[in-house]
Amino acid sequence: MDWKKLFGFAPLPKPEFIKVYENAMERKIAGGKPVSELEFLVIDTETTGLDIKRDHVLSYGAVQVSHNRIRIASAREFYLRPKKRNREAIKVHGLVRERPYVSREQLIRSFLDDAQHKILVGHHLGFDLAMMERVGRSIGLRKIKNPVLDTFNLALRLDMGKFYDPQAVVSTDYSLDKLCERYAISPDDRHTAAGDALLAAQLLVKLLKAAEKKGIKTFADLMG
Amino acid sequence: MANVIVNRVIEFLKKYPPFSFLSPELLAQVAREVDLVYFEEGEFLFQKGEPAKSYFFVVKEGAIKLTDHFEGKEETVEICDEGDVFGVLALLGKRPYILNARADEHSLVMAVPVGVFEKILSENNKVSLYFASGFASGQVVVRSGLSQTQKVRTLFGRDRDTNENGLMLFSGQTSIQFSHPVIYCHTGNTVAEAVEKMSREKVGSIIIVDENKHPKGIITDKDLRNRLIARNLPYSTPVTKIMSRPVVTAKKDMEFSQVYLNMVKHRLHHLVFTEDGSSDSPLIGIISDHDILLSQGNSPAVLIKALQESQDIHELAKLRNQAEGMLKYFLENELAIEFIAGILTEINDTLIRRAIAMARARHEAVFPELRDLQFCFLALGSEGRGEQLLRTDLDNAIVYEDVADELKEKARNFMHLIARDVMDILFACDFHSCPAEMMANNPQWCQPLGQWKKYFSQWIREPDPQSLMMATIFFDFRAVSGKQALADALTQHVYEEINQGKVFLNFFAKNALLNPPPLGFFRNFMIEKSGKHAEKFDIKLRAMMPLADAARVLILSHQVVGINNTFKRYEKLAELEPNQAALYRDAGKAYEIFMRIRALEGLSTASSGRFIQPDSLGKLQRQLLKNAFFPIDEIQKILKVRFQLDYFGN
Q: Considering the entire predicted model, what is its pTM?
């Protein structure tokens, strides 16, 4: 007896685009693929707060990087209508203007379409992915299955090697702001999801070049 | 909907041509399609000979150098920095790259797909002109490019500033508005008949035409006064007897500024227009200086007239300051440099003539025996070439006729006093003293013809560096006031000497190569390395002198007399050597561009304009400047070959 079904708690049938995404992700990226041929989706979200259980995504920005090129044509910027306007977040992000909002489903659909076969990239990416999964849960997205690359970790690794001691790291030295400064990226449009995604993308292409010099030449090297 | 990322790209691109010419919609369309690519120092973007990619580039951050191979070595041709467009061969004809592009530092570059731009290229006039004129970097400007470049300038210039300063001198006035219908009578008429017509039509002048309506002469109120009434002639006198002739004629489709320049130069009160511009063609109109003055309150003609009539040194100074305002107006309105330089030279010459008259009046009484001493005031250097737009250093001299031994001392004193007074007046008018004292008030440069001949002979026969330096300044002498024949005698002497010692020209040509051409705005390369002008670009030394020096040598080698303007010299050279005509014309155009940029810089920084801060120039100006450098190298190659300088001792 399927109790959930009986009491009407059953999830809606999984939408087609999620199935397409999940199928696509069955195909893994070959470990020997050169870094210069990899395809990335750099994302960032702005949220009502830092609690992944209680806070919500306000906006989402993304841009693709492939063959070391940032593809402006693939730039995305979406806003979700906040359930409750959280005054604190509005102060930080300045999200006061009325936006052309999209639905959660539209957001997830676009994200999953773009994410197929890509390596997901972001600064402190884990948080953004957790928030995206939260947005997608009610639609039927169980897990984001892409390989992930955190620019925070990559920058650290380039400085300290693969086996650094996390205790020895002053994490504020590796904030997006600090890294942009170090890598001569002008910090425009900070605190908009798309603006931060573009910054992270610029950081990514620079880090990848630096990584290549340190012998990180393939997908396996990069993930290892 | 354009998002933050696309907007970021739009904000960047719209600052730079050709993107700045696009409508917001088109720009957004372009911005959405670009890729951002990062290159590390030393990395190639493309290499010579590679097939063109499907996109061209704009530097977002950093610097990209375009290089070529010379004798096995990679040499930098040009450096592109923020906002520079390059690799456009992809767009134009899809030929393989003719240069390498390599990151000179860590650089972020925008790749703009050709596809989205092709349509724009075919539809947007400005954008296609931009590319056609070789504004993009490394495009290797086709020789005929510069005149196109200028066309672009005017096109772009017009958009930028609709002018609001009340002068409205020539703006939009490209065609001439002459009096119509023109009042005339026939050669067979009497003065009485002519006057009757004049008074009926309320005009101050009347044209006399023959049976074919060809203008033969003109009678003005003044002629009636001086030639008829004062001489007690009857009213039945035929008009032909008192008319002024010949009349100066022009074609009706002549540019207004040219007409105007003509009138100012020749001190004409009237200019008559005929069908074909000659006096053997039917009359169609007349324009008087009065017509112009009425429509233009603040005009060069008024200024020159005021200078001519002034007796007071302070007033002269004031008038000369006014001329500066006019210069600014001319430059901002993109009037032809030939016109601007012509007017300014005329103003300066008038001032000098005025100063000489004042000095002479003051000292003549003390030297009664020298009352008839002939002398000629010579302008040297840029003033001698008639290209001095700003009141920079004075270079001038006086040549006077040789006198009997017993008068020598007196003549020297007299001339020196005049020179001293003239220079004082010029200093009062804010001209600057020449640091090397090449001025008439230096006794060395205030000499009789015999001594001048010796000077020139020495420079020509002993072409050491000092002589050559002198030659570059003194060979551009031009008679400003006084006895022209003295200057002519000197010119003739120069040519005789050169013909005897031909080797002089080789030395002179070698001297003209002392300043190699700048290749482009190499951020830290071309600008001065140290001293007061560190980080600035010396436009006089690096761009203007090489062209002026080359023109001088070439024109001397052709034995041309009487053409001093660098740009006119190139015009003449183009005429004399048809197979090099395009290059010479470009060189002349380039020189005009340098003059304009220097003058604007000087006006805006209240300096000589010689040292230019590359950052202070707009993108378009920088590109214009860059393009204008190209002929320098070519011209110098001609000198090298023609005077066999590679085999010529050091």
A: 0.58
